[in-house]
Every structure is written in C-alpha cells, then in structure tokens.
Amino acid sequence: MPEQPQDSLLGLDYQELSEIAQRYGQPEYRARQLFDALYPQRLSELDSVSTLPSPFRAALKKEGLEIRHPRIEKSFQSTDGTIRYLIAMADGETVETVWMPEGDGGESGDGTEAGDSDWRRATICVSSQVGCAVNCQFCLTALLGVKRNLSAGEIVGQVIAVLNHRQVDMERQRVNIVFMGMGEPFLNYPQFMKAVRLLAEGVGFPESRMTVSTSGIIPRIADFGGEPLRPKLAISLNASNNEVRSRIMPINRKWSLEMLLQAARDFPLRNRERITFEYVLLDGVNDSVAHARELIELLRGIRCKVNLIALNPGPGIDFGTPAEHRVKDFQELLAKAGVPVFVRRPRGLDIYAACGQLKRTVA
Ligand code: SAH
Ligand code: SF4
User: Fold this and answer.
1) Can you tell me whether residue 280 is helix, strand or coil?
2) 16 catalytic, yes or no?
3) CA 243 to ligand 2 centroid distance, Å
C-alpha cells in the first residue's frame, strides 16, 4: 500500500517534535510549544503559533512543514443531530467521520435539529483506513476495497477537524471517540495506536472515552491487550457459529470463531471493564432463537456486553433488516440468560451515516 505523505507536523509525537527543534538549533522547550499548539490548542497553521519565533516558523515552512489539518469537504446534517463529514486528506483521498450529539437536541425525538450548543455529550466516529479490505458482506465500506492506510496525523486530524468545526471545549464538554468508521483499525495498527496516544496525551481524551472495534485480527488483539495505554475493545462478532460467520465475514476463514473467543478470554481486562461484542442482525441469517442460544453458550465466562445492531440496509447489500419484534426477542433471550445486551439505535440513517453505511456518498 502506498505510504501517506509526511510533510505534516500533525501526527508527530513529542519525541519527533523534539528532534525537529534540535535540528533547527532550537531549545527543548520549543518541542513542548509545538506539541501544545498541535494538540491541546488544535491550531491549524504555524502562523498562529505565536509562542514560536517567526524565523523558526519560516524555516519550518521553507522545508515544506506545516500543520495541515485535513479539510472538511462536505457535511451532511441528519434530522437526529448526527453530522456526516466527508474529509479530504492532502493527497485528495477522502474518508468519513461522524459526529453524534446526545442530549436535548440530539435525542429529543421531536424532529427538531440539534443546535450548536444543546448537546451534553457527543461521540465522534473516526476512520482508520481509506476503504476496507476485510470484505464483510453486509458492509458498504467493503465495496470500496482498501485504498491506503491513514497516518496517525490523518486519524487525529479527523478528530481535530470535527472538534474545531463544532467548537468543542474539551475542558467543559464530554466527547467520546469510537474507531468504528471506515477501515479495520487493527490492519493499520502502529498508526492507529500512535493516534490513540496523541489523542490521550495531547488532545485530552481519557483512554476510557475511546473504543476501538475490530473484525477480529487475532494477533493484534493480543498486542492491544499489552498496551500500557489503550481504548476499550469491541469485537464485531456478528454470528454464533463458523458456518454463518465465514459466509458473512470471510475473515473468519483465516481466524475462526474459536480463536476469536479464545483471544477474548485471554484479553486482560481492567477493573470493571467489559469487552463489547457487536452483533449485526441479518434477517433470517443470524437472528433466530437457536442463534441466540448458541451465542449465549459462546459468551459464557467472558466479561462482556452485547450490542445488537439491526442491519442498516444499502445498495449492493444482499441482506434484509429483521422486524423489530425479532430484534426484541433476540435481545430478551440474551438478557434472560444474564448477558448484558443493548440495541444500538441507528444514527444518521437519512444521511448514510449509520454503521456500515460509510462509503463516501456525496448526496
Ligand atoms: N472495521 C471495524 C470497525 C468499523 S465497522 C469492525 O468491523 O469492527 C463498525 C461496526 O459496524 C461493526 O461492528 C460492523 O459489524 C457494523 N456494521 C457494518 N456494516 C453494517 C450494516 N450494514 N448495518 C449495521 N451495522 C454494520
Ligand atoms: Fe471493514 Fe468493519 Fe466494514 Fe468489515 S464491517 S468491511 S471490517 S469496516
């Protein structure tokens, strides 16, 4: 896969900034000033970093180095307050990032649009790759294939672009991040993890407010468990046996359900932490009573919760959405067996912003 351009200061960690300061004969504290400008202050150009002497700024720019935020190319506002952003990288590739406010505006259900300030909490759904190679049969992103990995700067850049657009004050407002946009984060592991550290140590997201979802890249699940700083883990399970899972998620032929559940059992959870299993319900495929019973057996002994998502349909997807009562029945069976289970309500369906719908639709 082609490498992303690296002429952007955004995405560099403290160590790398400190090397730059040294290279230009600047004192060490310039690295801190750069870091503060890039991440906590979220400044978008060197010229606004007034703490730096202008000859230093000019020297950086002369070498082609700039902050280079990704550009919001388009945005689509849903009636439920969700905003889908089409965000362009320096090379013109675009990804999608979704803003989901909750609170008076976002969840009022009265059809009024969320204003700029009437949310109490919000979640940003971030992409990790341009497209995705995993090829899950129910997901629109899969239809794009994978173009390239995003760099750490491009991942952090999506978050910063949205925070700035929404004028978020990180000290006073509560924002969560989910790495559940386009792409498989664990197939872009080093850049994804670097972005996580910059978001935690720089932009101000505690690790407990970040969640990553994986389709089940087993070796990376183990690596992830060993990280000193990491988001919470969600696993896209989506089936209760190998036959169904291999059909809807071809990656299951490489890493089976048994291997996936063993990786989940081995995963070192923190105090009160649970693994989330996502389960997309496909009408007549994985949503029967027998499937629910199988699922309950699979999850026995794992500290977890289950998020059920009724399929969000889309062109080119050959599955149907189960009727509401089937979703409810499935949920009740799990709940009765003592499995914490939630039904995720779709956000931004009207603007193609919901789970599995991200494919750079421009209208
Ligand atoms: N690639 C990662 C993260 C992004 S997908 C992963 O697959 O885990 C985020 C979630 O959306 C996954 O749990 C996936 O199973 C779900 N999803 C994909 N397509 C969907 C669709 N059409 N309707 C509902 N959920 C979908
Ligand atoms: Fe990729 Fe996740 Fe979509 Fe599967 S569900 S194709 S892993 S983005």
Assistant:
1) strand
2) no
3) 19
Q: Determine whether 154 is an active site residue.
A: no
Residue 175 in contact with ligand 2 by CB distance below 6 A? no
Cα-flanking dihedrals φ and ψ of residue 89, to 5°?
-90, 175
Q: State the DSSP code for 186.
A: G
Alpha-carbon span 43 to 40, nearest angstrom: 9
Evaluate: CB of 286 within 6 angstroms of ligand 1. Answer: no
User: E-strand spans in the chain?
Assistant: 71-77, 83-88, 94-102, 121-125, 129-131, 146-149, 174-179, 210-214, 232-236, 275-281, 304-310, 341-343
- Is there an atom of ligand 2 within 6 Å of 264 CB? no
Q: pTM of the entire structure?
A: 0.94
Would you say the CB of residue 134 lies under 6 angstroms from ligand 2? yes
Which atom of ligand 1 approaches the CA of 278 most closely?
Answer: 13
Choose the residue to mutate in 125, 128, 135, 136 for probing ligand 2, maximizing ligand atoms within 8 Å of C-beta: 136
What tens-digit pLDDT sequence spans the chain (363 residues)? 544 456 899 999 999 999 999 999 999 999 999 999 999 999 999 999 999 999 999 999 999 999 999 999 999 999 999 999 999 999 999 999 999 998 654 444 444 444 555 688 999 999 999 999 999 999 999 998 999 999 999 999 999 999 999 999 999 999 999 999 999 999 999 999 999 999 999 999 999 999 999 999 999 999 999 999 999 999 999 999 999 999 999 999 999 999 999 999 999 999 999 999 999 999 999 999 999 999 999 999 999 999 999 999 988 899 999 999 999 999 999 999 999 999 998 888 888 888 878 777 775
